[in-house]
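# nightly structure sweep
# worker-07 picked up a monomer target from the shared queue
# config: single-sequence mode, recycle default, output format = structure tokens
# input follows
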Amino acid sequence: MFGSADIPGIYVLHPPPPGRLRVAIHVSRTLNQHLPCSTVFHDSSEMLSIEVFSPEGLFGSPHRSLRLTSVYLLRTNCTPYRSILPERIFSFLSYPPLVLGDFNLHYPLADPCCSLFEREFIISTRYFDAAFDIPYHLLNTPGVYTRFPFETISRPSVLDLAFANTALSSLISSWDTALPSPCSDHVPCVITLKPPAIMLPPPTPHWALLNLDAVGKALDTFTTQPCPEGPTPNSLGRWFDISSTRLTSLLTSHASSKCPCPCSKPWWSAHLSSLRRDYHKVATISRLDPSPLNWSNVKSSRRTYFKAIASAKKTHWSDFLSSATPRSLWTAKRFAFGRPP
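# output follows
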């Protein structure tokens, strides 16, 4: 985050004077040529942000903005015993923010082997709680040191922290300290972003198009291996698995495959598709002939269509809650409250 201002192809952003230069952000001129960037100044000279904009979306996501915030916390003698309040560092944003810098905080989550005094734990807990309430996620790998003091009497520690909110955490590919130290007791922390992986659902048999005549002829000649004599639980289970696999393969071989669209909804049905076709049909007729009768048909069809959608969503949500498991409990809460717990 700090370096020479005369690096070719790089320009430096820092808070305006007066005040000692404690934070700076180096931005590639190539990046600024392709994506517009703007500087966001804060009340404190130990905090600086830049906004990166992209009309097409950043990193393959629907978000068009990214905020990068550099922080340097100084020790003070008044509450919260650091120079910037945690509420000013971790604010709720609907788009991805990345907060990183030298926090001068010790916390068990970042450094599990560190022995803390009670006051240190109370100070760091206030900042981490403020981050987790948004929620922001800690990107550091627990136990990976970011500061190696030159004096041998002090142990390595984790002072350089990086946080990302839920909108950005899915785009984080890695966090590591693979680069050598640039003549400092702190090592560079490299954060790699990647586009979100779109996992398409696997193809499934289209049972509605199953060729029943061909399946019937195949089942007439279908045979299974004889059940083992004096079966044990293992041999019986192995025989059943082989027979079940053969039968399933026979059925799927006579059914065409279908690949669900990644945008498809689990609550959608053929009945809703029929209502949608009817609604768009009468809407098209009404646009061509805007008579009161046609407009009345549009309103009636639209009311029926959207009521069916609401009913399908409500039924699917009830079924989802009734079959919820401990593993899917937090997923249900995220759907209900609009953000992860």
